[in-house]
Design goal:
about 170 residues; Immunoglobulin-like; 2 domains; 8 strands
Length: about 170
């Protein structure tokens, strides 16, 4: 009886460990946030490229917004406009050349024109932006969901031990 119970618990533990791994491995046609910026901290007036990957032959629209919103639209140039649509090549890549003429923080968002899906969102800080000096970029992940899941698994395991000991004490008495 103990061997069967141990085997079932081990099988359940392996299943709990592998199910999220299998789900995370699936990424067919996942183009989410698949873009790069050649320079995330360009100088004012310096051109840089924004490369985004999406479905081959799809129309991709790049839109740039400023933070703070008080920066004029004239500080943004993408081949003479504030928003530009290009068609991806056979490899699914579209390259935009961007020039930002004023210091500040800018958000570049590339969307699939047909579906409206966001393909990539990047932030660029033009040199001289207020508050940009001395601050570190945000990296890593949010560990709270993982910690809560681990805590829940520990509580379930502890509950299983308590139930098993009560059953064993009831059989022995």
């Amino acid at each position: 009886m103990k061997i069967r119970r141990t085997a079932l618990v081990a099988t359940a533990a392996v299943a709990f460990a592998l199910v999220p791994s299998a789900a995370m491995a699936y990424g067919a046609n996942d183009y989410s946030n698949d873009g790069t910026v050649s320079d995330t901290t360009p100088a004012a007036g310096q051109s840089f490229t924004f490369t985004v990957t999406g479905p081959p032959g799809a129309s991709v629209t790049l839109t740039i917004t400023t933070n703070p919103a008080s920066l004029p639209d004239s500080s943004i140039t993408i081949a003479g406009t504030k928003s530009l649509t290009k068609v991806t090549n056979a490899a699914g890549t579209a390259v935009f050349t961007v020039t930002l003429s004023q210091a500040g923080s800018f958000t570049l968002v590339a969307t699939d024109t047909a579906t409206g899906a966001v393909l990539s969102s990047q932030t660029v800080s033009v040199a001289g932006a207020a508050g940009a000096a001395g601050s570190l970029s945000s990296t890593g992940s949010n560990a709270l969901p993982i910690a809560l899941g681990a805590g829940a698994l520990v509580l379930v395991g502890a509950g299983g031990v308590v139930v098993a000991r009560r059953r064993q004490a009831g059989v022995a008495a």
